[in-house]
Amino acid sequence: MHVGAGDVIELAVDDAGNPERYRIDRVEQGAMQLLEAVRIESEVYVLSDIGEDTPGVSPFVPPVPVLPVFLDLPLMTGDEVPHAPHIAVTAKPWPGTVALYNSDSDSNYRLDQIIGHRAVVGVSETPLFAASSSLLDKGPDLQIRLTAGQLEGVDEAALLSGRNLAAIGDGSAGNWELFQFQRAELLEPNTYLLRNRLRGQLGSDGIMPAQWPSGSTFVLIDPALTQIALKTAARNLARHYRIGPARRGYDDPSYEHRIEAFSGIGLRPYAPCHLRVTADGAGGSMWSWIRRTRIDGDEWDLPEVPLGEESEVYVVRVMQGSMILREAVTTTPNWIYTAAEKADDGVSVPYEVHVAQISARFGAGLFARATVSD
């Protein structure tokens, strides 16, 4: 066979007798001719119809200041660091990523978090009046205007499973009521009407005011919220924060500077419930209540909810106006205000009774209140 290196030959080597092409790479002459070849196909050199990849071009986003909202919240899933606050950040336009730096002074900042998602933040345009935390609030619609993002309604099962949780407050870090909403009607771009609300969730009924006025801050509780790294020893200490576009340095004019201190609301005991005052038959009165827990309180199969604290301790107060007439500590969910103590305090009706559970790490939690008028 008169062939040499580089020649292309066809051989019928498959079972169907179809020819296959080979390129000879090496020829060895001897008693017989030895060939080394590789299979080739001309189709591999034919241009395909696949388009070329072109480099993407990101639109220019000016380094505008962002709007940070700090939230010192109760435990929501139980997986959070109890004493650490959250931050929600929004901006229009969104810079892509936002950096959060912190320090104990306005210098020597360290990177705390890189935030990649814009939170759903807005303001209320109608007041939200106080309502029971145990019933569906079907009062006047709550109108919310968002900076960006969207809201959507859920069915009843999803609502009762914890969906559509939001916070409303005055914008300060530790003053938030958590509530849920079932209906969200789009009124106009970025403006919604929220209906069928569950109020005072996760123990926040204890801070619910007579009304949240128009202009209150609204934050949707979703994965865009980021928990800040905070040491336990740093609770209640003022710290400096700088928040701005991640591609800029923290000393850039686009960065927002905040000074915040956090008490660690995730450690705060809920206010007791069902506070009752009854006469003891001897001129005194008996107070009784039922404790609540901030940890695993929805476990209905348990005979009693977990304590959630190192020990069961309560502080009770007798209040005449803004004056504390008597304060006592008890380790049971009841207390007797004797006739002798009443006479010694000089109490007169009407007066108030206040009860709070005490945490070894937080101190007194939110107070339950009742008025005694006879």
From TrEMBL:
Stored InterPro entries: Rcc01698_C (IPR056490)
Residues annotated as domain Rcc01698-like C-terminal: 119-219
Domain of life: Bacteria
Protein name as annotated: Rcc01698-like C-terminal domain-containing protein
